[in-house]
Amino acid sequence: VSIKTYMSTNAEKKVESKKKNGAALLIEALVHGGVEIMFANPGTTEMVLVEALDKVEGMQGVLCAHETVCSGAADGYARMTGKTACTLLHLGVGLANATANLHNAKRASTPVINLVGDMATWHLDKDPVLASDITSLAHFTTPHVFTCDEIDNVRST
After folding, report:
1. What share of the chain is helix, strand, coil (3-state, %, to 5)?
2. What is the pLDDT of residues 115-144, one digit of tens each?
């Protein structure tokens, strides 16, 4: 069963769906897809995902001091175990910091999923200091890039 199918099926369960936000649905889908570990260097925009890590069984969160540590650990873990690893990075700046390791992971076909938080949509028109074109940065380090800005889109992503 793919992550998409699981999320669609899970979303139809109205009782469970009302109790879960998009972050919990995303973490559950990762777990259902076989991801057991997330190396995280979160900022304020990713706190909802950090909270979901505590609520969803089956995902181990590892707090890292820097994005290069997250990406290097995820690449190393996936290469050693053969299992998909996940990173949680803060904004485009965090993705940029992780780029060297993620480039190596991409070239080695290492199974790494990267979750990158972004600025709140209502804040973007103010051109905040840490805003960046995450999608363009991500294409350099991964073959597939998906953007999700609403809970309904989590299910289709």
Report:
1. 55, 10, 30
2. 887 766 676 777 767 777 777 777 778 877
